[in-house]
Design a protein that fits this description.
The protein is mainly alpha-helical and 115 residues long. It is built from three helices and two strands. The longest helix has 37 residues.
Length: 115
């Protein structure tokens, strides 16, 4: 198995510099705003790293939002079942059939032709 050797280029595959510096086209200097910390955080980094950080943050926000929506939906469904007094499986099945008929009513023409 070959062992990777560190080159003079360091970690940056795009430049001849050993570390990020202002002469590199990918060098960025700015301020980040964190949701947890109230103060802006100054940074100096490679644009590729910044893009990866932002993409990861967007993914994490989307995941948490989907989780919260799912939890809210489950709580609303349970609250509705408690309010309607549905405690047994047979009551749940009857409610589901009733809701299906409300949301997707059967076609009366098809029911007549099936007889």
């Amino acid at each position: 198995m070959a062992v990777e050797k560190k080159t003079k280029r360091g970690l940056c595959p795009f430049s001849l510099f050993e570390e990020c510096n202002p002469d590199c086209v990918f060098y960025r200097k700015g301020v980040r705003f964190s949701e947890k910390a109230g103060d802006p955080i100054p940074f100096e980094d490679c644009a590729i790293n910044i893009i990866a950080d932002n993409l990861e943050a967007m993914h994490n926000r989307t995941y948490m939002m989907q989780k919260e929506v799912g939890d809210t939906k489950n709580i609303m469904a349970m609250k509705t079942m408690v309010d309607l007094g549905i405690k047994h499986q047979t009551h749940r099945e009857a409610l589901i059939r009733h809701l299906v008929n409300i949301l997707d009513p059967p076609d009366p023409k098809k029911a007549i032709s099936d007889k």
